[in-house]
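Sample intake — Phosphotransferase family enzyme
Collected from: Kribbella kalugense
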Amino acid sequence: MERTVERLLGELLEQDVRIIGRTELGNSELAPVARLTLDREYDGIGRTVIAKSRRPIGGEWGALANEQLALEHLRASGLAPRFLTGVPDQLVVMTDLGAGPTVQDLLFGNDPQAATNGLLAMAKLAGKLHGATNPSFAAAHQGTFLDRALDNWPGIVTAAADFGCPPPDDVELTELARDLRELTAFTHGDFTPNNVVLVDGEARLVDFEGAGRRHPGLDAACLRLPFPQYGHWAVLPPAVIDEMDDAYRETLSGCDYTRLIATGCATWAIIRLARLPLIASTQTPADALRRRTQIVQTITSAAASSPTYPTLSAWFETLADAMRHRWDEARQPPRTFQAFKDFSNQ
């Protein structure tokens, strides 16, 4: 990687560039990320850059092209690193936002106020992303689980029947599909605490492989549920979620917020319910506890957040009750992020 980055930066700057150090960031084998230290300070770049590569999956390269397109789309926004150079769909070199912390770092810490401040900065960032950036973004690829979420419905119907809870025939899928189509914005696609870096108290986004033009509620619902796709899933105090709601709404204006968040939450519940066969399968006790508490918490929160779709919301509640009845794990309280361990009941 280093020799390629040296060559690309040299071509960009029209001078020789040397890399004298490398620090690995993250732990993804498919998309390695590194901070590269340069031999000196360069105008407009600094002393370090971030390089992200993509290893082939099944003989084909992944969707790193989306990262480049998104960074170029956000170039003037100040909400993300600045794209510098790269190799299409194989390597992206961008400016370095610094050492953080990320919002994840704060949630894993022991300071609830710092974690709250980070989450509020994250919520404001979402509002800026959806309201202040040009929505006319053409992604290099579609993320099936987000862009075709309702395709999961037939499988969900089959899985739910095993709980004696088939969805009603008049569930509002047509209305939900229409809402997903009619309101679109530039969205991140993986709006989780590890992808938000704080720079002088302001939040910035990284990791845009899942970026796309889609309903903004799919990002916003990550604040409300919270973070349904996050690998370190846990819950937040309701008071903190309310503050995040307010921060997002204050930053994003000119939309029906109740409908926006309902659309996002209902869609995320459907996305997560597509995993129901896995969640219901035989598994280790630790996996069963984690997956079953999460699915019940997610669809219960989605039901409370989706009054726009009353039949669908009521069915979410019925299905959650059936899960609690069947699984001991589903009746256990969900884990709370470390920073809020003493605030579980707030």
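Post-analysis note: The chain has 13 helices and nine strands.
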